[in-house]
Amino acid sequence: MNNKHVEDFVMYVDKIFRLEDGTNVFIGEVLGKKKIITPCRAKVIFGDMSIANLQIEGERMPGPTLPTTYRVVYTRDPIEFDTSIGSGNYILISEQIDIV
Fold first, then answer.
1. For 52, left (φ over 0), alpha (ψ -120 to 50), or beta?
2. What's the whole-model pTM score?
3. pLDDT by residue (tens digit) across 49-91?
């Protein structure tokens, strides 16, 4: 059997913030046809480099002021990269594995 990575979504991150309970939240425009973002592994891209791998726990409901193409996902993993350089510089890409 071969494993094949399938991209379920690509998020162009607009904002990253941390909640009081330690949850890290990513808000951004999502490309892809995934109706609901479910728990998955995702890599964080900055420029042309993969800088982190995170466990995405799922999706949260966006607020009414967000554009309709924006989605909200969260992780409990610690963020060990500098978000002060501007959230808009990050891309989040899901990594799903299908067994073929």
1. beta
2. 0.82
3. 898 999 999 998 877 788 888 999 999 998 887 766 665 789 9
* Separation CA 53–CA 22 (nearest Å): 17
Candidates 52, 40, 51; CA nearest to 9 is 40
The 3-class secondary structure across 10-60, one letter per residue, is EEEEEEEEECCCCCEEEEEEEECCCCCCCCEEEEEEECCEEEEEEEEEEEE
Mind listing the domains of the chain with CATH numbers?
3-99 (2.40.30)
Do residues 91 and 44 make contact, with C-beta atoms less than 8 angstroms apart? Answer: yes
